[in-house]
Amino acid sequence: MKFQLLSGIIAIILTLSTSQTLAHGEQNPNKPKTSKTKSVVSGPEATPKPKPIIKKPVPAPAPKPQTFTATSFLTNQTSKFGPGIEGAAVNTAGNLFAVNFNKEEFHIGQANPEQKCFFRGDATNFFNAIRFIPSGKKDVDIALVGDVKSHAVLQLTSEANGNVTKKVFCQDPKILQPNDLAVTKSGRVYLSGQNFTADTKVGDGDLWLCDKAGKAKRLGIFGRTNGIEVSPDERTLYLSEAFNKNGTVISNKILKFKLNKKTGGIIGKPQIFVDFGKFDKTQAIDIDGIRADIEGNLYVTRNGAGEVKKFSPKGVLLATIKLSFTNPTNLELGGPKGTDLFVVGKCNVNDTPQGCVDVLKGQKRPGKAITILRSGHP
Questions:
Q1: How many CA atoms lie within 13 A of 304 on its CB side?
Q2: Confidence tier at 47 by pLDDT (50, 70, 90)
Q3: What are phi and psi of 174, to 5 degrees?
Q4: Of 109, 79, 120, 164, whose CA–CA distance to 349 is shortest?
């Protein structure tokens, strides 16, 4: 009896010892070993959650081009400018100037608020382009003028008393004309030019740079070049190029160049900004003057179509501006706020050619040229 009681106590002690050992994490040697492989979950929990769908932003559609109609400012009956009117430019006040005043190729006139002579050269001059630059002085205007006969850009300084003095700003006998000018806030001046022939070849157009010191440098030769402009940030230059074949105009494009902001020179090869043959099949209609507003939008005259095209810096057509005459030659933004678009060109009434001006008031942004002028005046 005592033996049985002693055996029972020993069994109880062994059982308690084993339980404590298992509680401390030791394996039971009598329990079969199990695999450590994780169990596979089946059923709905096994399906991975779908990744969220990220929608790519849809680009905003291009704005629908608008159509505007300019109104007559100087007509065949009121204009004192001849059919060779060109070189539209504005001074700090926003007044409009152009060449061919009194039908003289060496005469520059002011169109508003009254028509009057600004500067009259002589038979050794043929003025074709005008751009005003900041003078830094109140009531003093400085105009740069392209003179075809002297292959030069002249500088005209108009004092408060009305006296105008003339000197050469830059000159080179290899300059074809110049035809038109583009100016920058940094003081650089770019020149286009053309030799109009029945069959255009490369070399019938050129591109020149005159630095602030008046040193001229040729940047390239092309087909005949005409309209020219530089973007407000001075990183892009726009230049029109056209070709004739057998007396017919077969191509009109606007080229786009990258500029070295430090030197003003061209970087790499040009891109095509607009090819009017592909754009609207109007390759036979010449591009003439080109001007920019402060956002870099370009206003482009179509000489023969009686209209101006407005493009964004990305080449998107923003607007078409209809004119009262067929042959616009140049244009500029001016007026009190710098937002009135003046367009000059040849008009014909009863077969009597004359120089006319249209205006479209209240553009959204002022012109680049007048903004530069007003920022440089006291």
A1: 9
A2: low
A3: -85, -10
A4: 79
Instruction: Pick the closest to residue 329 from 86, 98, 81 (CA basis).
Output: 86
Paired residues of 90 in beta bridges: 96
**pLDDT in the model for residue 236:** 98
Of 377, 363, 287, the closest CA to residue 332 belongs to: 363
Q: Which residue has the tokens 């286009």?
A: 192
Closest to 180 in 3D by CA, of 332, 346, 19: 332
For 164-180, write each residue's pLDDT tens digit.
999 999 999 999 999 99
DSSP line for 52-85: PP-PPPPPPPPPPPEEEE-EEEE-TTT--B-TT-
How many DSSP H helices and E strands does the chain contain? 3, 25
Residues contacting 362, CB < 8 A, separation 6+: 339, 340
Amino acid 157: pLDDT:
98
Which structure tokens are listed for 55? 């929608």
